[in-house]
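Issue 218. Parser rejects a valid record. Input:
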Amino acid sequence: MSPVDPYGSADPRGWDRPDGPALPWPDHDIEPGPWTRGPAVAPDLHADPRTRPPADPGRAYPGYDDRDRARPFREPAGPGDPAYGGRPAAVNGRNGRHGPAGDDPEYPTAQLEPVRDDAPPMSEYPTTQLEPIRDESAPAASQPPSGRRQPGRRRAGGPSAPQASSSRAGRNLPAAIAVGVALGALILVPLFLYPPAFLLVVAGAVAIGSWETARAARRADAHPPLVPLIAGAVLTVGLAWFAGPDALTLGLAVTVLGSVVWRLGDGPAGFRRDVTAATLIAVYVPFLGGFAALLAAVPDDGPLRVLATLVAVVLSDTGGYAAGANFGKHPMAPTISPKKSWEGLAGSVGAAAFGSAVLLWLLFDVPLWWGALFGVAVSAAAVLGDLAESMVKRDLGVKDMSNLLPGHGGLMDRLDSILFAAPTAYLLLAVLVPVAG
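Output the parser choked on:
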């Protein structure tokens, strides 16, 4: 740009002369912006730079002429702008202005109008006034109004939600009682009416127990063979019934050997783990369960011995539950069974001792002190059996062995106490009540 020299002639110089060079772009593209200095100039006056009138000498000062009136005035954009001390753009060597906003023809975009923020205010967005989305899966009547919930209502599934059919142990108490009565009838009716049928009950129980335990062992990536285990369980109980204690040991050996031979056909992968699991199951279920067959096979008073053992176990479980639910405050084995307490153990031992003392005195004419000792031993064995199965289930990560019995879980969850109590009762009764004949 060639400003008017106030110290010299007022004649225009540069491209303001009639014979001066033409602009590289037409001046009619320059539109006055809202921040231009001075009044806006009509576009038709800038159609030809040769017809532009000379600048007013009275308003002229160095570095300013009428062409600057059409240049938009830009407000500082922020801290990064050169007006705020930021890094300036390149200096235009022609007129000394910063950046490409000078009059140098090498920067044709210098006179573009600045971009304005035309975003509408927030009041023009209708979605800001929409109501919050509610859960439409529930009926409208069940949805409380916004804000605090209505008095008298409780959150679903909270601690105060009613548990109509659950006991303190987390079981369905009516179903558990019904199943318990049915199991008792299934044992006692064939035991006193037709003892050989009781053998089928014991064989079926140990077979189902072996299946449940082997199935739960798969949680530990162990796969004991089911066929030799179930067949060996039935064989072990039958040998104990017909041939006595020596045959019971023989049945255990046959079951373990059959499991080993059967497992050889599946290859060496995991052989040791599977054989170990099969051995433990054979000892835990068929071998210990075979003592129930030994008790029932005793001549003359075999059913009474089974009855005395079952009563002691039932009294132990009932006394422990009642004492633990009402007075239990000191956990006995929190890492194995958190619900068992020392108060519950005292209730188990006390109830079994008192009931067994009276029952053995009535059935076998055993002194009360010896009957109480029998009850204490059987109760202790039943509690140990319950803890042993709880430890196995905790190690395997299962709550119940199966869902076969409503309110009880699996059959093994009912046999755990009896499996440890049967050998103890068999040995003690063999001493306290000599075998007839």
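Fixed in the parser; the record now loads. Residues 368-396 form the longest helix (29 residues).
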